[in-house]
Specification:
The protein has 438 residues and is mostly helical. Helices cover 58% and strands 6% of the residues. It binds zinc ion.
């Protein structure tokens, strides 16, 4: 079956919840279609069907609150559906894939996420008029962006179904933006659905008040077998390559695909996994730190260069660069400010890209020391990096479980420090020294 949930790898429980919600949302729309004709019992909130509400208000009141996600059957319209959702899970588990798939199921003209109708297609392609996707490019989502979004989300859906707002990294909301969002979630327009994605529901990631208004869809790290299967089925990757990539990517679907397909990504990984062998002294540790930082910078620069240039060109065209008309002088005065804004945005995006690249390297490195640890413990677990398993085995003998654990912790501490805004070079140098000393 290749409906919209097909690419949500290894998340059977979440898919059941989302399918049921989509079906019940479709039932709601059907019930509302002939204006205020429903005669059934009001939903848990005690809505009064004759109290002068229009059909949209009645519809909104049928939506469940966040608390009762559980075991309603879907027999009454509204059960299983609510207007605000949070998808949580480790990076690569498919938070945004799940949110997009659910959005498609809600916009599906058959109401189930068939994967073939215009509603499903345009949503998955990112061109549906009633689905807005926020992908923060920089380190945070600002209040102005959020206000504009909330305003547009309040309009009546042009396709007659739902207005959907997907926020891909809700943990990057600024406090003010979070408040603007909270207000919209607290007083939701009748047909607006908010889908938030965040690593967890820890208060650092998502405010307690927003969390309390949303229904939670926890995703797990997909098992390597399920990741390999999707790489073979969807991307046509050879089974042995898919298996290796799925294990090496540690449950991160996108990363697995990149490793399987992109030779440069494989080379970068090889360079990272060569680090443990190269740590022969203090000088070597600092060299390894520099190499890791510079590799992340180069990778990030390459990934943003093209879009940076396109944006600059587009802005210059919009500002009429080289124009000689009457408006040109005025335009030039505003242009400096706009260019400065653009540069600020681009710098923020570049910083994010660097951190992401560095984090990927640290996850690979952590996988190596995890392998050494599980081998020292003789745990019956398949290695993350099959291609460096022999080296990890040698480390296990030399360091014992304790030494392997200390090294693994050094890598994880480095990730945490960078996330907490310690300068990457300082954090990485401290880590390399710890890895060398053990
Ligand atoms: Zn469909």
């Amino acid at each position: 079956m290749t409906d919209v949930f097909a690419d949500l790898v290894g998340q059977d429980e979440a898919v059941v919840t989302l399918r049921r919600a989509a079906a019940s949302a479709a039932a709601l729309l059907r019930a509302a279609a002939p204006a205020v004709s429903r005669t059934g019992a009001p939903a848990a909130g005690g809505a009064d069907p004759d109290g002068g509400h229009d059909d949209l208000d009645a519809l909104a009141e049928q939506l469940d609150g966040p608390g009762d996600a559980g075991d309603r059957t879907g027999a009454e319209p509204g059960a299983g559906m609510t207007h605000a959702w949070i998808f949580t899970g480790p990076p690569g588990s498919g938070r945004s894939v799940a949110a997009r798939a659910f959005a498609a199921a809600l916009q599906c003209v058959h109401g189930t996420g068939c994967g073939h109708c215009p509603g499903c297609h345009t949503t998955l392609a990112g061109t549906h008029a009633d689905v807005r996707l926020v992908v923060p490019e920089g380190l945070s989502i600002g209040v102005n962006e959020m206000r504009a979004l909330v305003l547009r989300a309040a309009s009546t859906p042009s396709g007659g179904r739902w207005q959907i707002v997907i926020i891909e990294d809700a943990d990057r909301l600024t406090e003010a933006a979070g408040n603007a969002l909270l207000k919209a979630i607290e007083e939701p327009p009748p047909r607006t659905v908010f889908l938030l994605c965040a690593p967890s529901t820890h208060p650092d990631d998502i405010s307690v008040t927003i969390r309390s208004r949303c229904r939670l869809v926890p995703l797990r790290q997909p098992p390597a077998g399920a990741v390999a299967e999707v790489l073979v089925r969807r991307d046509g990757i050879a089974p042995d390559v898919a298996e290796w990539a799925a294990a090496a990517a540690q449950g991160h679907v996108g990363r697995a695909r990149r490793l399987a397909r992109d030779p440069e990504a494989r080379q970068r990984r090889d360079a990272v996994l060569a680090v443990p062998r190269r740590l022969t002294g203090v000088g070597a540790a600092f060299d390894a730190a520099s190499a890791l930082i510079e590799a992340a910078e180069a990778e990030a620069a390459a990934s943003v260069a093209e879009v940076d240039e396109a944006e600059r060109a587009a802005l210059q065209t919009a500002l009429g660069a080289g124009g000689t008309g009457r408006g040109a002088a005025g335009a030039m005065r505003g242009a400096a400010g706009q260019l400065k804004d653009l540069e600020k945005r681009q710098k923020s995006r570049a910083t994010r890209a660097q951190r992401d690249a560095l984090d990927r390297a640290l996850v690979d490195l952590a996988g190596f020391y995890r392998d050494a640890l599980t081998m020292a413990l003789r745990a019956p677990v398949a290695p993350v990096h099959t291609d460096t398993a022999a080296l990890a085995g040698a480390g296990a003998q030399k360091w014992d479980a304790e030494g392997a654990l200390r090294r693994l912790e050094a890598v994880l501490e480095c990730r945490a420090a960078i996330e907490a805004n310690v300068k990457p070079r300082i954090a990485v140098e401290a880590m390399m020294l710890a890895l060398w000393k053990g």
